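User: Reviewer 2 asked us to show a designed sequence for the structure in our supplementary figure. I'm pasting the structure tokens here. Could you produce the per-position amino acids so we can include them in the response letter?
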């Protein structure tokens, strides 16, 4: 459940919201200046949209949705009705899920036979995972500065207008001039387009990082771990004649 909450939280960052609004309404990026203002006035009922759609099953059941907001995450066990309600009303379901895990580990601390130094390693790994989640959340929530993007667009326009003149004065050739102009202009334009893609690496585009796929792989690791424990605890069930 924690993996599904983290993947859903990163997937629905502010930058992804801007990109989806731009694609749906076919507006320019300049129309997204009021993004922060509209998000501050978001009603409390809209928090339910961020709740991921969970499905109980195996990792092979994980599929990618056609829409950015319709990804269903497969989990080993669905949360209880009370836990599901707490997730829906919570503004930070990842922190809530982390709290439940830490509470469970703390309650089982006296029952486990593992030495305390080894047990502390579990808390350390959870802390490291939360730090990496926070770093990914910064990328998905913090957009590229709008003023800086506009300045780069203006400079790119001026560069494109002056480039043919400079190349013609430098080469004095009817063949090399247009060829070099095309190569330099196309290279700079591709770099700018690549920068726009890297601004939001989490999403549903063909070049984006598939968080649902990462969740599926994490679920596969859990299933393999449980299968390995079953072999160690009940070897007679896996003996073949």
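Assistant: Here is a per-position design you can include in the supplement:
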């Amino acid at each position: 459940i924690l993996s599904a909450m983290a993947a859903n939280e990163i997937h629905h960052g502010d930058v992804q919201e801007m990109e989806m609004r731009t694609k749906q309404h076919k507006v320019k990026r300049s129309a997204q200046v009021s993004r922060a203002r509209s998000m501050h006035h978001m009603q409390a009922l809209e928090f339910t949209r961020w709740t991921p759609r969970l499905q109980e099953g195996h990792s092979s059941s994980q599929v990618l949705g056609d829409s950015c907001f319709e990804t269903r995450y497969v989990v080993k066990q669905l949360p209880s009705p009370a836990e599901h309600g707490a997730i829906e009303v919570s503004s930070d379901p990842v922190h809530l899920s982390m709290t439940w895990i830490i509470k469970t580990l703390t309650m089982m601390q006296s029952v486990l036979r593992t030495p305390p130094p080894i047990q502390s390693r579990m808390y350390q790994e959870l802390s490291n995972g939360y730090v990496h989640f926070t770093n990914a959340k910064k990328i998905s929530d913090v957009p590229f500065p709008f003023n800086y993007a506009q300045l780069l667009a203006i400079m790119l326009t001026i560069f494109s207008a002056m480039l043919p003149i400079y190349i013609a004065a430098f080469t004095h050739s009817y063949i090399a001039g247009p060829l070099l102009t095309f190569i330099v202009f196309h290279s700079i334009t591709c770099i700018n387009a690549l920068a726009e893609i890297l601004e939001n690496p989490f999403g549903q585009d063909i070049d984006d990082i598939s968080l649902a796929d990462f969740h599926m792989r994490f679920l596969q690791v859990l299933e393999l771990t449980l299968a390995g424990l079953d072999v160690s605890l009940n070897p007679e069930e896996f003996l073949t004649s």
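For the response letter, you might also mention the following. The radius of gyration is 25 Å. Residues 29-49 have pLDDT under 50 and may be disordered.
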